[in-house]
Amino acid sequence: MSGTASWRVRGGQLLVVSALALAWEFAARSGLADPDILPPLSKVCAILWRLLHDADFLADIRITGFEVLLAFAIVVPLGLAAGFLLGESQRLERAFGGPLQLLMSVPKSVFLPVFVLIFGIGIAQKVIFAIVLAFFIVVPTGLAAVHSVPHGLVVAARAFGATRAQIYGRIYLPAMAPLIVGGVRLGLIFVVHGVVFAEMYGSTGGIGRSILGWGEAFQMDYLLAAVLLVLGATVALNETIQAVETRLRTRNGVAL
Amino acid sequence: MSQGSDVVVARDVTKSFATATGTFVALDRVSLTVPDHKFVSIVGPSGCGKSTLMQIIGGLTAATTGEVTVDGLRITEPRPDQIGIVFQDPLLLPWKSARDNVEFPLALRGEPKEKRRARARELLAMVGLSDFADSFPHQLSGGMRQRAALARTLAVDPSVLLMDEPFSALDAQTKMVLQQDLGRTLADTGKTALFITHDLVEAVALSDRVLVMSQRPGRIIEEIVVEAGDRDNPMKRRQHPRIAEYVVRLMGLLQIEQAAA
Predict the structure, then answer these.
(1) Are A75 and A191 in contact (CB under 8 A)?
(2) Does ipTM top 0.90?
(3) CATH 3.40.50.300: does it fit domain B3-82+158-260?
């Protein structure tokens, strides 16, 4: 039954996306929208295809991809570990919980000029900015993951003679898995956001810089092609990780 | 009963906590003994420290003063080989099947897989869950979950079972069926049991002795020896003419009528 329902939902989603694509194409071709601002989707797709065979653009993709991977590989373990330590120690949480909340609410982008002054406009600046941006998103997820471990399961494991290492490995880890994967997902989204944003602000390469350049040159077809690419890649990654997360969540259910 | 046959011995166990308003005494010099192969229940008003006492005997919490010994050994930490605990909630691992949950205590001590499998099969059959070995906790009913939890506790074959209101979350009929199973299982395996409950009929139906605890700070105020036979058949014992008499006596000790008036 849920299978049919989910198919219906998927069908609906596909319908909405198709309708939007058709409306875009129609608006641009009929003159409803200014084709300089909104070029037809078919043209944008053709340009995207061409870009994917363009050596310069592929180099940009490689730069952005490398920055995203590097920032992701650093910030997700770092953020989850920090969240875990905060969650495990009441004293640490009391000391750092407040400041963390405060830092979370600060818009990190206003510090970008400072980052550029300190780290220049190379890869380091973009990676570090993305790490800072994502860190304050991943830490609370790690904290929530620790808090999601049912206390009763830990007590029961102790009663069965579990060592501390066994409690972490056999109770904490599986119980925290859905939120850990959630942290991975949020980390990835915010790392992409941070890298592309920093590239647009000041960079010598990367997709963000290309997007900015096409925007300034009023090449909307190229700009939209790059946007479609980033959009498609992010949505695909997000959906994949989300699927894992949902599976883990269903598996863990409620502690009974 | 002679001192030598007492398996569980608690001597002057006191548990107090420091709070903002002063010292909170949960248990006040509680002493009790559970002789070998006997089933002893503790009844008392809610908040009297029954669960705290259970945790101390199980080695999960330290007593402030006093001591607990099981088989003559002082309890300072959980001793899964000697003491098995069944909690009020089944506390099964939701990501493991019933079989893997039963195997869990064996897996913790690194038992080989074939041995674990064989033991789990035996135990699941004993609690009537053979057909549900591959089911996950959320696919089982409340009674089935508690059966699986009992099987898990029995997996390492502890000589003493501590049970903290294990049937309190179940409906009346399921409860009676599980009481019957427990009565049989304990008679068959010859285990010593300490059982906490607020259900007076349950206490009388299952126990050799019933200990009555007072309001907080909890103390043991009376010990009743149940002489109605059929300890291995709680359903039959429920119909014994003396049951009502014991329950009325417990009601009096717990001042239930006064509380209702």
Answers:
(1) yes
(2) no
(3) yes
